[in-house]
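Q: Sequence in, structure out?
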Amino acid sequence: MEDWAILLNYMGRYDPRDPLSLNHPKRDFTKLMERPMEGWRIAFTPDFGMFPVEPEVLELVERASNRFKEAGAIVEPVDFHLPRTAEEYADIWCRSISVDSTIEIELDKQNGFDLIGDHREELPEEFIYYKEQVAKGGVLDYYRFNCARTELLDAHEDIFEHYDLIISPTACCMPPRNAEDGNTLGPELVNGTPVNRLIGFAETFLANFTGHPAASVPAGFLPNGLPVGMQIVGRKFRDEDVFTAARTFEKLQPWRQYYGTIDS
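A: Exactly. Output:
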């Protein structure tokens, strides 16, 4: 955690040439992460009200989340109420992050380099699929993306009205094995429910959607020796709260000794 804090101390600075950069007072995350968590209120969700989660993963992460009680925090279960399924949000997310690559591919094609036409066999079919879906889209697709993002943002902010942090599993299932061709996909089913194999088995893309700061820390190991992650999500622009929680958990359940000991 100290490495991460030092890195963000240098990265988290205002840049007037970046339209999304915020001129916040400079923060020293190496000091802020050492704050006590006495009285902090933590919301625990296994699934954000929509993800299927394997019981072994849920049990381990829930047990890990309750360790914050040892630091004086209050940990309580919460419910999320969202109008779409996790598979729908995952599909919208995959489309949204394919916009920039689709633009670059089309511009390259105009300049004489046809990535899809000349190198299709080298590219994952999932990449090509979402590129083609985005290319066929229109302004209403951007509107639908914004609607989905607003739904997720409102759901998070409803929780943050009463809690300092949200904790969940990082992934819903046991870690998938890396594919030999480099195109690793998740399972088709989690707990008997179909999921988007690119991202639908992970609960992390929601924070990417909303812009909340988030971290994944090692929650422990399954009986087969594979690791499980616990996601910590903080309020908007409260990165230091995520640092404090992650650092506190690192002290309660150190993980440094496990680096380099797990086979892929």
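The chain has a mean pLDDT of 93.
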